[in-house]
Structures are given as C-alpha cells and as structure tokens.
Amino acid sequence: MTTTPEDHDGARYSRQARFRGIGQQGQERLTAGRVLVVGCGALGSVSADLLARSGVGHITVVDRDFVEVSNLQRQLLFDEADAAAGTPKAVAAAEAIGRINSGIVVEPVVADVTPDNVEALVAGADVVLDGTDNLETRYLLNDACVKARIPWIYGGAVGSGGMAMVVLPSRTPCFRCMFPVPAAAGSLDTCETAGVLASAVVMVSAFQWTEAVKLLVGDREHLNLKLVYFDVWENDRLDSDRLDPAPDCPCCGRHRYEFLDAGATSRTAALCGRNAVQVSPGHEVALDLRELANRLEGVGALTTTRFLLRLALGAHELTVFPDGRAIVKGTSDLSVARSLYARYVGV
Amino acid sequence: MWGSDVIYLDNAATSFPKPPEVAAAISDFLTDKAGNPGRSGHGLALAAQGVVSDTRRALASFLGAGDPARLAFTLNATDALNLALWGLLRPGDRVVTTSMEHNAVARPLFALAESGVAVHRIPCARDGSLDLADLECELRSMPTRLVAMTHASNVCGTVLPIAEAAELAHRHGALILVDAAQTAGVLPVDVTARGIDLLAVPGHKGLLGPTGTGALYVAPGLELTPTRQGGTGSRSEELRQPRQMPDRLEAGTVNTVGIAGLGAALRLLRNGGAAEVRAHEEALTARLLDGLRDIPGVHVQGTGDASRQVAVVSVTVDGWEPVDLGAALDSSFKIAVRAGLHCAPLAHHSIGTYPQGTVRLAPGPTTTPSEIDETLAALRELALAAG
Fold first, then answer.
1. Is B156 among the catalytic positions?
2. At A187, is the pLDDT very low, low, confident or very high (cuts 50, 70, 90)?
3. ipTM of this predicted complex?
4. Can you tell me the distance from the alpha carbon of A165 to that of A154, in angstroms, rounded to the nearest whole number?
5. This prediction's pTM
C-alpha cells in the first residue's frame, strides 16, 4: 500500500492553476472533466499520463493490445514488468496512472473499438483523444463523435512525422472532410514498417493534451483549429489553413455514418477448425505484394509469391493476399488478428 | 458484387445462386400472404397456411413420406438433428454412429453422452466409406436404441449405405436417424421404401431454398418428446403440448417466408428435376476428379469415384496449408471454396487430414464444365507455386 502525500492548500495543481489560461475555475473544470482515450500505445499513454497529472477527474482508457517489449521505447506509461507479464495496455495504463494520481478515476477497457461498442464508449465524454494505430478506427471515432456531437482530437505519428487536428462537430471540418476516402488497406506506413521516434509521438500527444485542456476549461477562443503537421527529423512544419466543413461530406454534411453502419469497416472471421482468423478490408483493394514486402523487409521472415506474402512474427504468422485479406495464424482471437493486421498491413 | 463473376464451389455449405423463382415466391409471400398460418381465419392467415401446407406436401412427396404431417419444419438440418436426438434418447440408451459425422450429429451426441447416453462410434475407412459388417457387429454386441449416421460426408462426399444400415438397425431392434444434409435434393431419399425412421434435411442446400429452413421426418408410430413447447394454434385450451404431428414439434410460428421460398424450389426439383441435378453434378464431379488426378502435388480425399459420392470433393495440395490455398483461390481467381475442417473434425481424423483439413470443392446445379476447367487450371498454377 503506497501512501498518498498530503496535499496542503491545493499544492498539487498550484503551478497549473497559476497559469492565466486555466486558473482555479479551470482547474475545477478539469476535475469535473471526462476524457476518453482511444488506444493506449505511444500517443494514448502519453496523453493519459498528462491528463492524469493535470487532474482530469475521469479518464477512460481503451485498448485491445498487450504490452510488448518493443513498446517500451516510446509508450511512457509502461515498464519491463508490464511487458514481461504481457499485461493488457489499458490495465497497465490504469495501474500506472493510479500510482501517479490516486485522486482521479481511471477506467480501463480492454476491447477492440468496433461499430458495436464505439457509441457507448464515447457517450458521456467531454472530449475524445485519438491514440489509435489505424485509420479505420479513426473514421469510426469520427462517425461516433460527429453523431454524438462530441469534440475529438485526431493524432497520428509514424517515422519522424506527426499530425493532429481538433474536430468540433458541426463547427470545424471533420476527419472525413479532410480525408474523404480511406487509404487502401496495405498502402500506408505503420510504426511496424517505418518505425517511429518517441519525440514525434510526444509532440503529437502534447498538442492533443493542450487542446483537450482548452476544451475542458472552456477556452475555445484559443483552440488551434489547423491541421498540424511536422517532421522532427526533416525539420518540416506545415499548418494547413482552417477550412469550413465540406457541405457534401458523407459524415458531418449528410450524416451518413458509413463506418458506424459497419458497411465500410474491415471484417474478421474465425476459420473453421484452425487457430486462425481471416481479416478482410471493408473496401476493394488491389494490393501490390512486392511493395508491401519492401516495407516489411527486416520485420520478420518473409516469403512472397504471386499469390501471397507470408510474414513470420514469433507466435503468429500473417499470410496476406492480393485482395488485401490476411489470414492470421496462431490466434483465434478476432481482436488480436485485427491488431496485427492494422500494425503490419495497415488499415 | 457477388455471384456473376465468382465461380461458386461452396454449395455444400449453402447452394448459390438460388433459382429466381425462390426469390419471387418470397417477395410474393411478403407482399400478399404474410399472415400467421393456422392462427386465425382471415384471408392472410389462410394464405400463409396454404403456403406452409403446400410446401409440406411437396416435401413429403419429394422424400417419399406418405403423410405430410410427419414432417416438422425446423430452422435447418442441425435443428432437426437436435430435435431427433434430444427428443428420442434417454439416459441408458445406446447409440451407434460413424466417424464421418458432422458436428451437427457429433456435438449433440457428445452432450447426450455426458447425460448418460452410451455412444459408440464406428471408424470409417480412409475413403470415408462404412463397412456394414462393422455396423452389424456393433448392433449385435449390445441392445441399441438408435443408429445415427450421415447419408453422405460433407467433407469428402462419400455416400453411406443408408438403406442397408436401416435394415440392419431394424433387424437388431434399433431405429435409424439419417442426416441428409448433403443428399436431400440430389440423391433419392425415399424414407418409406428405405425404412428410415428419422430424417433431417436442410432447406438451403440441395433443396435450393433459403437459409432458415429445414425439416425433420418422423416415421408413423414414433413419438418424440418436444424440446420446445408453445403455441401451435391447435388445442389451445390444453397446457400440455399436443400429441399430433406436426404441431407437437412446431411450437411457435414457423419460418413462413423461408418456407414459401422452399416451396418454389421444390416445385422446380419435382418431376425429374432432382435427377437432372444429380446427373449434372455427377458429371461435374467426374470431370473434377479426372482433372485433379493429373495435377502433380494434388491429393484427392474420398473414393475418387463420382458414382459413389455427391458433388463434394476434398483436396490437399503439397506445400499449401488448406486455409491459404482457399484464400488464394478466392483472392487471385475468384473461386469461392471452403477450407479447413468443415465442422467435421472426426471425419478429418478418419480420412487422415486432421488438423489442417482440406480445401473443399462443391459444384452445384448452375456450375458449368468450363468453370470446373478454370478451377483445375487455377489449382495447377497454385500447385506449381506451392506457398
């Protein structure tokens, strides 16, 4: 049992509350605030850490994955013991946060975010932070948040680059206004294929936390509503100008929530009698297996033929086909299969 | 998106495409006839009742069941098999079954064994065939209540001798339950002539109807304990489930919409339609088997003889895991097959393909010879590029 330090005269948050943008009233609003962090890898764990330290009263952390040793380079809430035990990330994050701040409520949810549960997850949140590792879940979050009119903050980092954007439903462009058509499965880099620098991640999380705090304390005037992009290695920086929502956007313009309706999301199926799961993209894909093989070079043992690409990953094996489907062997757990697909093929 | 440009060889799972008449009958039923059969006297209820009765009569005549009332509609063959097994067997009863059974038979029997039913499984040969001497030996060894067996394997298509098995069962005081999932609509199943006591059929495979339809035939004089009780529209004043068939086994409103579609399919299969389908599928199976024999690295499971099997052909290919081969056929060639264990792990143990299973090629009434040739060409390419 750890002892809780005494907090004389509100010393805990004093430096933050001294800041003019927050003040005592802002601090109280943070205490009353509810934030959902979707995905608790690199982005999510830094965001959740900052949210907890700043005294946000209720934090829900959702993740489907388990801590692995390759996470420790950038996923700041986790340590070697978590990786050795293979603790679910949401649980490890909640435990770590509990040690940082016992005065707030942290709720871990070990789950795959799907059309079935996303609306219940976002319900009641004041703001939702994106810590996911794939575009498909972002489109799903966008649908759910726009439908429920809950602000959410997109964030992504891969290689040395990072990108982030605040979405205020019906006021600013939504994720689909900016990126109307999802990139084809298997066409984008992931942290597993291109690597990632911790600094890029931390900068994105810092942006997300700052904008979330502005929203929670009610300072909308200072929100950064640009699509922010930077590269910490190439020294690039680009802030796109603020645009209006696209009137014909399927999501925020026409209120057709195609990802929530599950028609546009990838599908998983356990294969009869085999410790294997098939993941198929939700749209038609013509995958260039050679290009994917180039990206996966060095990640694990690779075999490529005209008909398939096979990647060995320890206990798992991914067999990817030209139509974008993959058979994930070594698991019958649909969410494990979806996670591996998102990380190595990309959705 | 599907159908037109796909070579569909998964008819053992469910037949596709369905005859257009099936879709038309369903649409017609929903538009004009969708009352609740047997529950009221108004026109829509009577129309629905007429459709259900017509389909029941057509199915009875198709299966050689004299009295249509001996057929109860079910959700599918699994539902019918469960109804037969749970409705008949009691602790202390003995069942003889085969090693080629689908989980629709094997799993209820496993559960019944846990509640005190003795289950003996006769091993079949590697080609899926059953030696009747083994069955006779088992029936001789101990009093047996039921022989529960498939008519044809859903893994390798091998047809089992149900008429002879029925005769043996009866000679030793046992009843026989036949799982006709792979044969109804294709092979003649004359329950009266063959002395079958209980027959389970799916509506959505060889009978070409929609999913959600099936039936259990119960021979005259045999009374099953219902596994569900409820409204039947008959003898409503009594709390006890009625004894008369089919009400006894049909509590709750049946799948009228699906039954309307099944009725349309049966009208097509009647008058020699099923025999044409069998001739067509047997020719396709022979073509497939011949072609497969010529491809190095391909191994055909089962008898290899189209006259001794239904249109269900299982293969393994050197260097390929069946699940990957199935995915490659679909991804690169748009050929839809099923790979793996086909819900019949015991059968794969019998034919020596457990645990990886096989790729199953199941042509249907609309499959063409050129589609078989395309499939053979695809398999030849894939066998060369062993994954």
1. no
2. confident
3. 0.80
4. 5
5. 0.86
